[in-house]
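Field reference: sequence -> structure
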Amino acid sequence: MPPVRLDVRFMQAAEWLHAEARRIRKPLLLSAGLTALQALLLVVQAWVLAEILSVSLWDHAPWSSLWRQWLSLFLLASVRAMLQMRARGIAFDASQDVGARLRMHLLSRVQALGVLGLRSQASGALITGLVDGVDTVLPYFARYLPGAITAVLVPTIVIACTLPADWISGVVLILSAPMIPLFMVLVGNAAERASHERFDQLRRLGRSFVDVLGGLTTLRQLGAAWRVADQLESEGEDYRRLSMQVLRIAFLSSLVLEFFATVSIAVVAVLIGFRLLWGEIHFQEGMFVLLLAPELYLPLRALGGLRHARMEAVAAIQGLQTVDGVFATPATAGTETVQCVHSGAELPEIEFRGVRFAHAGRPLLLDGIDLQIGRGLIALVGESGSGKSTLLDMLLGFATPMTGKILVNGVDFQTLDMFQWRARVAWVPQQPHVFDLSLRENLLLADPGAGSDRLDRALADSGLDAVASRLPSGMDTRLGENGLGLSGGELQRLALARALLRESADLWLFDEPTAHLDAESARSIGRLIRAAAASRTVLMVAHRLDAVMTADRVVVLHGGKVVESGAPRALLKSGGRFAVLAGTEMMG
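Structure field:
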């Protein structure tokens, strides 16, 4: 199932809807064919019913003699109902296919945005777009397009069958039918503006709600919860008001359409009544026209209501385009992949060549990085904002260089299979995330197949065994979202234990692994990392001087550039940038 393309730079919302309609034209044409067949059966049904009434009222035939007509009437109604249900089912399935591809596309954009990009985005707007936005688009394909097809086919067939029976009534229908779409457009312009405002307010409300939910604990501590609750209530009231405005316009348009449809049917009925009195038309033909006249206006009136589904869809797509526009086009995976780690497998040799990177609208974080990373422990040092964490994010595939290349064993990083590559990587971030699971389940996220022996060893090496022993249910204690109840140091130990469980990883990335730890624990973890570096490639962002001094090589970043690189003791003696940082203890 290929993902849809949704590009705000080249395609307007209505054009995108039309493009997707062409994509699903086959099921739509099948639905249209069933609708046309259903309309033809409607004409036959109206003729049979007119015949029953004519024979019963004028010829006084007993109803028992009309069993064939009654049976055919029942069969026609049953077949029409089945055709209508099938046509709607086909359109619904087609709309679900569009929705699935649209969600796939948006999720791929979210994935392409990566961790760095998501940090600068309002999660509430993303959630609203992925859930409510897509759900708002689907009725356009499931209801509006089939309704538009019905509004064309049914009146055409009705008029074509009415003209031979009574050309005067047919002319009246031809002249009155366009009045409904005309007023539908006039009234609908106001509804379209209201729909755009309503969806924009829904996105703002979703963004505010998610932001408040994430900071609820802090708001309570600051005593600001009630003030924020009042703000949410005000935004919710604005959304309610805009929703009622859309409904008010929808009801108004329905009233206008019903009025003109009723007047048109009344004109046809009056003309047929007088001509029956004057003997200019037979009862069966007149009844046949009267039965078909409401069926001509019914799909037109229904289209008036369904037009609001189109307005909502256009507003939703424009909102999704606003979200989609911040996403970079996902990189196409190449055919080259990093081999899995086996005995004797080659460690990753990583090379940065002229790498430059910056967030959208912000100054450069990395400005022409040239760096080679191989076996051993390499420490990245520099002031805050010098680009240390960004280098790790690039090696995780979370950020893509603006210019330059990253090579892994001579292969362009952008061509690697990220699933295979990340299987080789153990990562300890500054702020590890803990899920609402037990301690055991949180650890097994690193390697679901890890046995008890490996778990116990990882607990002991990371110092997490003391934390597990004091928990009420030990390893089976549920930690809660974000590890509520665990200190920063304990969360860091949990992240280290996860890394230790990834025994197949031959590239370890540590973003200040000894942060939040006391001096003795930091030294213990440092010895563990030092031992692991004998058989792995370890890249560590560090701010403790004692941790940096155990590294094989120190890389100093300043202003987005590599300004120094070498053994830590040699750099200290040189009196360069590293010596300045070490003297001021500003390693991160």
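Note: Strands lie at 350-357, 366-373, 376-381, 403-408, 411-412, 425-428, 507-511, 537-541, 553-558, 561-566.
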